[in-house]
């Protein structure tokens, strides 16, 4: 085993802060090598220690689908991808029903996702109704368009425990969103007392080690309650489709290396796929219903269920958090 790589792995296990250069060295290891499996072992060990040996399954309800002006090339809602030509909005009754089914199935937290065409006032109205329908202890998490300080305060007052927000790979190049806008939203959320979950995603074969390192080190500064790395699921006909997609094996290596950089301070570790990755440190996944930016159907058929996500974790040797999310708990 390469002595330098072993030293970096041991530094992470001992709680040391990895540098960008050290992360870069981990990411350039052959993902089928002995070193790669040691990186995955270390990531699993750190994740288990940071999360008390338990995994969580959250659930997301997509409340609308349709052409979105942000035109993110990796998203099925992007007009450039020509998947959704008309707006589809789920009724309040449908949204509440989906959220309650997820809660009854054992989801540890409920997320509400909307595209940028869904105005914040309407989103807050839906959220208040969902918040009232759910058990008081079930965390509600937002996944919504960028917002300023007043929006963050309104989300907090509507009953959200936190938000999922990401400075995506290629932001500003393959999206109509300036990177600074994403960062200002995350700062506003934290200022308002909202917990933040984020990710290094969506990663494709064309993304460089340098860009992965950049996003990872930025996330370390945010100190979110969960982070990780997700590979891009290509939308048929997307401008990004010709680049191909990462294999689950390569993505598991990236997920593990990123975890060593995050260390023990980020208890939740997520990834876009949960089979191999659950052995490589991933301890958080999502079931999904309604719209899904990776699916071409308005009511997702690829989102998975709470039961299937839990089964994957249990098969990978994880115990499950029962009841409300620990990651999004107020304490």
TrEMBL record:
It comes from Sporomusa termitida. One of its GO terms (molecular function) is iron-sulfur cluster binding. The lineage of its organism: Bacteria, Bacillati, Bacillota, Negativicutes, Selenomonadales. SUPFAM superfamilies: Radical SAM enzymes (SSF102114). The gene is bioB_5. This is Biotin synthase. InterPro entries: Aldolase_TIM, rSAM, rSAM_sf. Residues 53-269 form the Radical SAM core domain. Pfam families: Radical_SAM (PF04055). Gene3D superfamilies: Aldolase class I. Keywords: Iron, Iron-sulfur, Metal-binding, S-adenosyl-L-methionine, Transferase. Its EC number is 2.8.1.6.
């Amino acid at each position: 085993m390469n002595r330098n790589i072993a030293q970096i792995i041991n530094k992470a296990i001992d709680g040391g802060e990895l540098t960008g250069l050290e992360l870069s060295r981990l990411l350039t290891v052959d993902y089928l090598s002995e070193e790669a499996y040691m990186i995955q072992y270390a990531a699993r060990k750190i994740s288990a220690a940071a999360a008390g040996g338990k995994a969580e399954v959250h659930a997301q309800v997509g409340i609308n689908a349709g052409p979105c002006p942000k035109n993110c090339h990796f998203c099925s809602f992007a007009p450039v991808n020509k998947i959704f030509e008309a707006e589809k909005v789920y009724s309040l009754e449908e949204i509440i029903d989906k959220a309650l089914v997820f809660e009854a199935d054992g989801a540890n937290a409920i997320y509400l996702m909307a595209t940028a065409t869904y105005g914040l006032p309407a989103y807050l109205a839906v959220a208040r109704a969902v918040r009232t329908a759910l058990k008081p202890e079930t965390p509600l998490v937002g996944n919504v368009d960028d917002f300023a300080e007043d929006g963050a305060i309104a989300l907090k007052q509507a009953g959200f425990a936190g938000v999922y927000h990401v400075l995506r790979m290629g932001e500003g190049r393959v999206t109509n969103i300036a990177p600074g806008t994403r960062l200002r939203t995350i700062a506003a959320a934290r200022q308002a007392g909202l917990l933040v979950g984020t990710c290094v995603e969506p990663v494709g074969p064309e993304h460089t080690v340098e860009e992965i390192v950049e996003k990872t080190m930025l996330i370390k500064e945010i100190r979110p309650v969960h982070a990780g790395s997700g590979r891009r699921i290509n939308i048929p006909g997307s401008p990004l489709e010709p680049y191909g997609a990462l294999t689950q094996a390569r993505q598991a290596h990236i997920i593990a290396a990123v975890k060593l950089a995050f260390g023990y301070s980020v208890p939740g570790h997520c990834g876009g796929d949960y089979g191999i990755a659950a052995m490589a440190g991933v301890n958080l996944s999502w079931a999904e219903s309604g719209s899904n930016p990776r699916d071409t159907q308005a009511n997702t058929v690829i989102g998975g269920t709470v039961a299937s996500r839990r089964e994957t974790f249990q098969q990978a040797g994880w115990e499950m958090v029962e009841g409300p999310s620990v990651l999004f708990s107020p304490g």
